[in-house]
Specification:
This protein is mainly beta and 357 residues long. It is built from 2 helices and 24 strands.
């Protein structure tokens, strides 16, 4: 049976959950390893009360966060905001469908996210997922993480109260993984509209769509550089499902690989003020060993209009998984998704961040 909730009931539900937990503030700081202490201090858990939560981003003033989370009564991620210092989460998405890739507009007044709530067979989609989760629970099976390219996923814009303002994509296929440019004039995103996942850029109102990449395989997770001249992204062109970090000019030229490992590298993100990129990486060279995902940092420089990468340095070495890192607008904090929780479920963490310099 599919449980349906209106937005008001969901807000009430979360009020009860968080009041019961007594957890409106951040959790006590955690210890870090010697390696991590070079970069991170005052590591704290930001989200709780969810089955899982992650992929968080800061508001332009650094006071709020937006993220995706799964609540107990619904099988798919939904989008939430909350004050960074703690508080009751506010549901932003519709409460139905698969949702992902939320992002604040540079003026802090709007939110971008992708959703499949317009799926004409959403009842069947929800029922199938609930059935699969119940079977996994009974068998004790832990499914490997995968993200389906749901063809009913489109990009939407909402206000901070969760009112949908407009649908930005209408093409057939998966449209998601969107992010605003720093000047708020463009949106970079991933789409399967030409048959496989490629990168596109559109004006902030959804018009003037231009294709940025057109290579076999998956190109996704794009973020435009602070100066608006480059796009960093993940791709599995080298080997299917083995992602590597690439950067490409906003004009679609000078596409180069920043990583070339035997593992998986994904979720790259720009430092807002310094020439650094941070991402998630894991070594997959030993098929008998379970890869552990950690955070990696790379300095870069632009010479003669071309992108030049320095050697990568490791930021985390925790036995838990650390993924999806993002910098705060002032560059002084790092937020990421981690399973370094007591229950080993994924939640958002934040820490003060020190650059190698």
């Amino acid at each position: 049976m599919i449980v349906r909730h209106c937005r008001d009931l969901l807000v009430f539900s979360f009020s009860v959950i968080f009041l019961a937990l007594g957890s409106h503030g951040q959790i006590q700081a955690q210890d870090v390893s010697e390696l991590e202490s070079k970069f991170l201090s005052d590591v704290r858990q930001v989200t709780n009360g969810f089955v899982k939560a992650g992929e968080g981003y800061f508001s332009p003033d650094g006071k709020q966060i937006v993220y995706q989370a799964v609540r107990q009564e619904y099988p798919f991620y939904q989008i939430f905001t909350q004050p960074l210092k703690g508080g009751i989460p506010r549901l932003i998405s519709t409460g139905r469908g698969r949702t992902t890739c939320s992002y604040f507009s540079p003026d802090g007044k709007r939110l971008l996210f992708a959703s499949s709530h317009l799926d004409p067979k959403i009842d069947e989609t929800e029922a199938a997922e609930l059935k699969q989760q119940e079977e996994d629970r009974k068998s004790g099976r832990r499914r490997r993480y995968s993200w389906p390219f749901d063809p009913h996923t489109d990009i939407f814009e909402a206000d901070l109260q969760g009112n949908l303002l407009r649908r930005l994509t209408t093409e057939a296929g998966y449209d998601a993984e969107g992010a605003y440019s720093y000047d708020g004039k463009k949106i970079a995103f991933c789409s399967t509209r030409d048959g496989d996942p490629d990168l596109y850029v559109m004006d902030v109102d959804g018009s003037n769509v231009k294709q940025l990449t057109n290579a076999p395989g998956y190109d996704g997770g794009p973020f435009m550089s602070p100066d608006g001249k480059w796009v960093v992204f993940r791709t599995d062109r080298k080997k299917k499902e083995f992602l590597q970090i690439h950067v490409i000019g906003i004009d679609g030229k000078n596409d180069i690989a920043l990583t070339n490992t035997t593992g998986v590298n994904w979720a790259p993100y720009w430092h807002p003020h310094k020439p650094y990129i941070i991402w998630t990486g894991a070594d997959h060279s030993n098929p008998r060993a379970r890869p552990n995902y950690d955070l990696w940092l790379m300095k870069y420089e632009i010479r003669d209009g071309r992108f030049h990468a320095h050697p990568a340095v490791r930021v985390t070495d925790h036995p838990a998984g650390d993924v999806l890192p993002v910098f705060s607008p002032d560059g002084n904090h790092l937020m990421w998704t981690s399973t370094r929780t007591e229950t080993h479920t994924s939640q958002l963490f934040i820490a003060k961040f020190n650059l190698p310099e």
